[in-house]
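Tokens as discussed.
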């Protein structure tokens, strides 16, 4: 083995190389388990790095620097979350809080048909409010959306809704 080969083998990896290796390790972890279940701190990666590079304090520091520069958030149990930023995590927590507070339900609209109500623009908001508040219409549509010049109602009772609306004209 030449002196150049021995020097390159013994050399510590750059921070960027450490980051790439850490990302690959965490990608495999996500593929296998769906989430990170093994890596909480830089020392948890050291067995992988020591299998590629000679163990040293400088290698450990380089791995620590790589972890720190990646700015990965951690979950409630302290494990790194490699596929999200801190901002994403905070946004998801806020959404979860609001979903819990608002008793969210997911409804499929595949059995609904859209019905467009063309209106004069100044009346759109008020008519939407009245349709949402009026008990007569409560069971007639699943969703109501403001459109350019009117409202779109999604309903599974299209014929009944049309008759009801016609009776009011």
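Sequence:
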């Amino acid at each position: 083995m030449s002196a150049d080969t021995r020097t390159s083998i013994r050399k510590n990896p750059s921070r960027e190389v450490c980051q790439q290796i850490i990302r690959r390790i965490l990608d495999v972890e996500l593929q296998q388990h769906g989430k990170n279940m093994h890596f909480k701190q830089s020392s948890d990666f050291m067995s992988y790095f020591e299998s590629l590079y000679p163990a040293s304090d400088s290698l450990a520091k380089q791995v620590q620097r790589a972890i720190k520069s990646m700015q990965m958030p951690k979950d409630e149990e302290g494990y790194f979350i490699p596929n999200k930023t801190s901002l994403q995590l905070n946004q998801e927590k806020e959404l979860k809080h609001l979903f819990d507070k608002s008793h969210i339900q997911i409804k499929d609209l595949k059995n609904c048909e859209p019905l467009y109500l063309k209106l004069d623009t100044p009346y759109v908001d008020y008519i939407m409010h009245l349709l949402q508040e009026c008990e007569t219409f409560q069971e007639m549509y699943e969703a109501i959306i403001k459109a350019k010049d009117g409202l779109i109602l999604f309903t599974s009772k299209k014929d009944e809704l049309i008759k009801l609306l016609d009776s009011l004209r």
